[in-house]
């Protein structure tokens, strides 16, 4: 049985494609659905089903557009209440796909409708499970997201559901089954996922902390809930879009693909309800940018950082991109529900400069330059990495302000003396720098290579702290 994993690294997401005897199924598709349609066309297959493991929080699924374009049947697990036509399966229900069978296993815990799909080949042999956010490689789905949509679904209640789902449904399955999860390392839907994106269930039973057979329910709940960070603010909004429905991506892009001259861009960007999102790399942005721009580079975890930094999912956005990457940026914004791009700077930043418009810049220094500066002057140091990264190792005397908390801690940064910001490699600190600039800060420098460069090229004093395993 061939299961094709279609992995998108920037949001650590895995969709799956299965085909047999001219019939295809897609599991947990992204919003841009043409690649799935093209894949089925390559096999001369019709997409019969779109299976959803749950109402996703970290991305907007493409199930509705796939149904509209192919006539595919959308399938959710038990208890789901979608606001559109879809099949809500019963626990144990079997769907035929050519000579394959797909069995629904209701596994509440991450969410109440969460379901795992058991894949059975043409010979009746159980091949694997598409586990959604119920079971990851090295982890399980966090149970604290649904309470942001339905208050009575507390994290304790869902964690206990997950304990029973794993032990009464998943752990009873054969060790040789292949686990196909919805996410890998880097996703905010778990806390300690492996970089591997598939494994055997048997190995997970041996190595995954959440599948220890001697765990009591209370022990499971305590371990699962310890160390969870606050979920990104856009998560509940994506859940509601996936649950209630959304505008087709084609219409979203039609409104977004609006080229603006420098003059037009200048007028629109001065509106209070519009933000300028510059998606160029940190080096180019620092050298010259349009005043009041926010920099979130497209070549990174772009969508998730937009979701962390831009609090309003309905925010109107105008884009500054590298030439030819305008549509890519629009699509990646819409993956996480930011559907209100209203135009882009035609010809990119070069056209802005050619038009003689006002520009701004940011000062960046190397790790060696930081070492030299600290030898002669007193500087405040701010580390914008995650707390877990900071706890692992950081510069002595630096203060940790995680990037996703920056907007709530602006008063911590001094306005009367020079300070330094850094992250791991310069991507996140440039996002932070653009936010600080937007808020009137001028007296700071950014370390271009981040802590990774500082650790390699300097002898600045560093401190390390090994976190207890429950904090990982």
From TrEMBL:
The keyword Metal-binding applies. This is MBL fold metallo-hydrolase. PROSITE patterns: RHODANESE_3. Keywords: Metal-binding. InterPro entries: Metallo-B-lactamas, Mito_Persulfide_Diox, POD-like_MBL-fold, Rhodanese-like_dom, Rhodanese-like_dom_sf, RibonucZ/Hydroxyglut_hydro. PANTHER family: PERSULFIDE DIOXYGENASE ETHE1 (PTHR43084), PERSULFIDE DIOXYGENASE ETHE1, MITOCHONDRIAL (PTHR43084:SF1). SMART domains: Lactamase_B, RHOD. The keyword Metal-binding applies. It comes from Flavobacterium celericrescens. Pfam families: Lactamase_B, Rhodanese. Residues 270-361, 375-463 form the Rhodanese domain. It comes from the Bacteria.
